[in-house]
Amino acid sequence: MKLKLNINYLAFATAVFVVEVCIATFLKSGFIRHTFGDYLVVFLLYYCIRGLSSLGVWRSAILVLIISFLIEFLQLTTVLEVFNLDNNTLAKLIFGTSFQFMDLMAYTAGIITILFIETNHPKYKK
Fold it and tell me: Comparing C-alpha atoms, which of 55, 57, 48, 52 is closest to residue 113?
């Protein structure tokens, strides 16, 4: 994997980041906060990876899904306590505090959407 900047993907990542910050700031509960936010976070990670590396569509998508699942499964442990971050609001926001099976489904749906968009993009049609 080489460092390779792609302004378009970084712009998408920035836009998704702004939406995620708005969701985290203004919504404290509900479908948008808990499920749609998890759906969007894989877009954020994917666009960051594609914006900063030479990884292709499938490898980036698989990497994002692995990272997402790993973080979700770490919520079954006391990882934040081990690193003395259990009272850190930002760490709890990024890593979450409780395992939810629905989060895994949201991540998977996000990756499926990304793959559908990317593989049906006109630049892949020949």
Answer: 57
Q: How is residue 18 written in tokens? A: 């702004």
* Interatomic CA distance for residues 26 and 20, integer angstroms: 10
Task: Determine the angle formed by the axes of helices 37-52 and 7-26, rounding to 10 degrees.
Answer: 150
Q: 86 — phi, psi (to 5°)? A: -65, -15
Top mean pLDDT of 25-34, 45-54, 80-89, 94-103 is at 45-54
What pLDDT is attached to residue 95? 83
Q: How far apart are CA 110 and CA 124, in angstroms?
A: 20
Question: 38, 107 in Cβ contact below 8 A?
Answer: yes
| Alpha-carbon span 76 to 95, nearest angstrom | 11
What is the separation, in whole angstroms, between the first and last Cα of the chain? Answer: 26
